[in-house]
Design a protein that fits this description.
CATH class of the largest domain: Mainly Alpha
Bound molecules: flavin-adenine dinucleotide
Shape: globular
Largest sheet: 5 strands, parallel
Helix content: 40-55%
Number of domains: 3
Mean pLDDT: 95
Order of helices and strands: EHEHHEHEHEHHHHHHHHHHHHHHHHHHH
Distance between the termini: 71 Å
Radius of gyration: 25 Å
CATH topology of the largest domain: DNA Cyclobutane Dipyrimidine Photolyase, subunit A, domain 3
CATH superfamily of the largest domain: DNA Cyclobutane Dipyrimidine Photolyase, subunit A, domain 3
Strand content: 5-15%
Length: 499
């Protein structure tokens, strides 16, 4: 009789993506409900890591998040099998060794590259008769037909029972070591695995620390400090990278906040915070529904607005050497810490797309790489909104001098990030080019030598941009596309919009 190979072992896989946590994790929760042994995997995918929006800071955060999860599995003698390889290959090889019955994962609202990768995985699963079960990502609904009642559906989702798993009861399986070593791929280089203390550290444990400290005390000044580049660093929740990499679910943040609301000293601050949690999913929903936003103006009528790329302008903006202190401080701070608050993000975008008259597409990846919390579903719709190419939002050209005066009154943020200006007193600090020669001598900073003169005239460039964008805003083509956008992306198209 011919030698028959023994049947392959039936298994289920939980594939972690941008959901690096154990608490309230639907794929794990449902995987645990069936009888198959579960293999936990994460894959550092070379093509994703090499994509133009990606930066070491993101993968360091992912690495830290995985370390945190591994530490919880250590006592169980179990682990997440981490690969640094192409995911279709990983699945292919696993399917040669095991009979994969099911793959559990969360839906990913990612860039075009990860969308295409998911199509490849989907085809593989259908060819191999593997059930790929994908669960809803926070409040973002896949294949949404209409935005009607979206807010109610969001609240319903947030109020559902969290899906809690007990890690100690998971039926986890181990891989044969030789097989794993062979498939694992190269070790991550040290830049991904070393610590960078100026950045928020990744991981579920840290996510909860940030949330607890916010709801215990930091939230009190939330609304007061939200626009301030320095004070927002403490007064805002700083949950964004933890939400972006799924170290905490939106539902847990929502429910924890609602719990605190009853006894909160400042209820208004918490209501404002909860609106932002909904915005998070609202923007991601827009992107999910119209993902061409990564590449194209959401309002096609702006395609005829011509902007000529100026590499010198972009490079000065990127390196924080435009000569406009608040803009430069923000950009330098982003390089070193990966975070600035919402208003400052809007301001640096306004400066580059209006004052420097550059196309948002020429700066989209620069910012994506700099934001530790880079979330494609928020990034592209926000970037387009701030760039004035939606036709349905108020056009805001931020005045960098006025904003610095109002939100960095004492110039602490500017002086922290632009040490060249440390001796310059306010109000000169906000417009250092106005210093006389004697003042430059006195404060030991020479404009054009130690710190640049502004690369454009702020008022002249604002006026030029404003004339063009407002002339567009009034055209029939913009309005028609605007109607389409409102119908598609908002619940009540007649309501005035700021999101
Ligand atoms: C051009 C531009 C790009 C942006 N790109 C991103 C991005 O890639 N990832 C990202 O998380 N946020 C992005 N934002 C939104 C916002 O700036 C950050 O979410 C916020 O600053 C994060 O700080 P926080 O966690 O302390 O926020 P908090 O004020 O404490 O808010 C709590 C959470 O609500 C969500 N949130 C807050 N503000 C907004 C907003 N305006 N739109 C959507 N969601 C919001 C975030 O998840 C945030 O963590 C962008 C804004 C602009 C103007």
């Amino acid at each position: 009789m011919a030698n028959e190979n023994p049947p392959l072992q039936d298994i289920a896989i939980v594939w972690f993506k941008r959901d690096l946590r154990f608490t309230d994790h639907e794929p794990l929760y449902y995987a645990q409900k069936q009888n198959l042994p579960i293999l936990l995997i994460y894959c550092f995918e070379p093509i994703v890591m090499e994509y133009a929006d990606s930066d070491v800071r993101h993968w360091r955060f992912v690495y830290q998040s995985l370390q945190d999860m591994q530490s919880k599995l250590e006592d169980l003698n179990a682990k997440i099998y981490v690969f640094h390889n192409h995911i279709p290959l990983v699945f292919q090889r696993l399917s040669e060794k095991y009979n994969i019955k099911k793959i559990y994962s969360n839906q990913e609202i990612g860039n075009k590259l990860t969308y295409d990768r998911d199509l490849v995985v989907q085809k593989f699963c259908s060819d191999q008769q593997i059930d790929w079960l994908e669960y809803q990502h926070n409040g973002v609904i896949r294949r949404l037909k209409s935005r009607k009642n979206w807010e109610q559906r969001w609240t319903q989702k947030m109020e559902e029972h969290p899906k809690i798993v007990n890690e100690t009861q998971l039926n986890l399986m181990t891989l044969d070591d030789a097989f794993y070593q062979d498939l694992k791929g190269p070790e991550l280089s040290i830049q991904f695995t070393s610590n960078e203390p100026a950045f928020q550290p990744g991981g579920e444990t840290n996510a909860w620390k940030y949330m607890q400290s916010f709801l215990k005390e930091r939230y009190v000044n939330y609304s007061k400090h939200i626009s301030k580049p320095q004070l927002s660093r403490k007064g805002c929740s700083r949950l964004s990278p933890y939400l972006a990499y799924g170290n905490i679910s939106m539902r847990m943040v929502y429910q924890y906040t609602v719990q605190h609301y009853k006894t909160a000293k400042n209820k208004r601050a918490l209501s404002n915070f909860v609106s932002r949690l909904q915005w998070h999913c609202h923007f991601m929903q827009k992107f999910e529904d119209e993902c061409r936003m990564e590449f194209e103006n959401v309002n096609r009528a702006y395609d005829s607005m011509v902007k000529t790329k100026n590499d010198n302008y972009i490079s000065a903006w990127q390196s924080g050497t435009t000569g406009v202190p608040i803009v430069d401080a923000c950009m330098r701070c982003l390089h070193k810490t990966g975070y600035i608050n919402f208003r400052m993000r809007a301001l640096v975008v306004s400066f580059v797309v209006f004052n420097l008259w550059q196309d948002w597409r020429d700066v989209k990846y620069i910012l994506a790489k700099l934001f530790l919390d880079y979330e494609p579903g928020i990034h592209y719709p926000q970037l387009q909104m701030q760039s004035g190419v939606t036709g349905v939002n108020t056009i805001r050209i931020y005045n960098p001098i006025k904003n610095a005066q109002e939100h960095d009154e004492e110039g602490i943020f500017i002086k922290t990030w632009i040490p060249e200006l440390k001796n310059v007193p306010t109000p000169l600090l906000f417009e250092p080019w106005k210093m006389t020669n004697i003042e430059q001598e006195m404060y030991q900073v020479f404009i054009g030598k130690d710190y640049p003169a502004p690369i454009v005239d702020i008022e002249v460039s604002r006026k030029a941009a404003s004339d063009i964008v407002w002339s567009f805003q009034k055209t029939k083509a913009v309005a028609e596309e605007g109607d389409r956008i409102l119908q598609k992306h908002v619940n009540n198209p007649s309501r005035p919009r700021n999101s």
